[in-house]
Amino acid sequence: MRFSLLPAMLAVQKAGAGCRHFDAQITNQIDRIGEHPFIIVRSLDPHDAAAHFVVCQTQNDTSEFIRKLGALPCFAQSKLLRAIVHALQLDIYEAADLLFSWTTSPVATPYERPLIGLPDGERKPWFYGYPAYEIGGSKSAANAPERQITTLISIFEAYDATDGNNRLRFAILEAIAFGLCRALGSNGRFEEASIFADRALRHSPHSMHLKTAMHALQLRLAGNEVPARLVKFIGHDNGYLKQFICPHAFENFEINHTGEVLTCAGPWISTGIGDFLTDSVDQIANSTTAKEIRKSIVAGSYKFCNHLECARMIQGTLPKREEVEKTPIGDAIARPDHRVDAVKELVYAFDKSCNLSCPSCRSELIAEKASTTIEKMRAVEEKLPLLLPNLRAIEINASGELFASRSSRKVLELIDDERCPNLRIDIISNGTLFSEEEWNKFPGIHDKIRSVRISTDAACKTTFEKLRRGASYESFLKNVLFLRSLRVSGIIPVLMFSFTYQVDNFREMREFLDFCYEMKADFAIFERLLNMVFSDREYRQKAVHHTGHPMHEEFLAIIRDPIFRAWRVWHDFDYPGVEKIAAQEAKRRFEWSKDPRPEKGLI
After folding, report:
1. In 10 A of CB 230, how many CB atoms?
2. Largest Cα–Cα separation, the chain
3. Average of pLDDT values for 362-382?
């Protein structure tokens, strides 16, 4: 149902007060179309008096629109319209980068401007509020950053005041808000920038780039230092990340529960590179998207990555470029298309089946249907043997519970010295099914374990059974004592327990350390709560690490305790007034966890 046009018309007219309005040529063209298109572009050719229009009627017509727009002679040099196209393609980072550049370019080449609203006093029954654009012609103008920023704000206001085409309209708003965060932030207008970020987040609450920008803005407004990796989100790119190369995109497969393959953990990168169920291993490893992700890392933008929550960025464990270039990854870096020859590390999160329904992860018990399991087992039996000979490590199961998953158990059955003599295994489990009996069912993995990580999130029975819904604390303790015996005997080289801090458990963080030491753990891992299942409101209530949370100061007081600086404590603390793990120290721990030789003398 169409919303009331009059309020929208008035709002758009106000938004476009500082911009040119639609002229007779544009209104006549829309009269001929019969309704207001989502995007209309007027191309002005200095050698042809007639104007040419490129129209995107609705968000469902973007492919043809982008093709026609790309054929315009001056489109390749544009910034404003190329930004709109990138937003339509959901490439928000690149769109915002172009918009920021557009606001700071001293000369508009080619000429491109928005037209917003109807001429004063004019009414059209088809008017829906979407801006129009023009590009080309013989016009040229010196750009003033303040005027460009004001124009960009007007475009934002116009799209925000109207309705319809919401999926891509929201993407455009997200890109413009991110561009404004950089443009306004570079001029010290942090509070104003935060208003636009907040407004766009209402439409796109999961936008990792806007969340990052908002975090950086809040730090600035509080008078705190912004981490070097985040500076570019509210101003000019300082090039900080260009000194690093993340190896994950060059050697890592992470298979999630749908079969989608990522190069890193889902919360840290949201763009898949292929489908394990339908694509070949090489089709996935060298897909167009996989190579684009590598290209962004080599270029230093890391535009596909979650800068705010990536643990390696926070802890400073990304390897230096010159170090990586000396490894086999260097060959892929040097290739123009960044093609890789083999996958070296596999994160198997192919099944969400679990015996628990932890509130931070799911709202109910999840057990895969038999038909889905059969399809996954087929993919595992067909493709895993092709991967195993080249793999140096496999991490299993980061999505559900290893011992509750048939396909995960099948993976363990396929592992032996003949197929993969050098493979090392990292197990992630909730511990409630990790009994001595289950362990003895998989003798082929006993001498291949590199680490076992048990997600715990509590230090007492009441909290454990609240946050590990469906679990028995007594059964868990029995299994954990068995794991302690495996660690003491050296069968498990590295034993870790993890704790996702939130409002329900943060007061137990000190006691959790005592628990870990008692269980002979090598590391106690503390990680912030990520939003996997909550509404935005629910998440804000639970995320005690957010600056606006009423218990945030109490949380900070706890984690300032020197006990969290011990060698065995591994955390993602990145908060004002709280000591971070030094980058070299974090890197040292990370490397030891991947190669835990006793002679290193680190524990």
Report:
1. 20
2. 85
3. 89
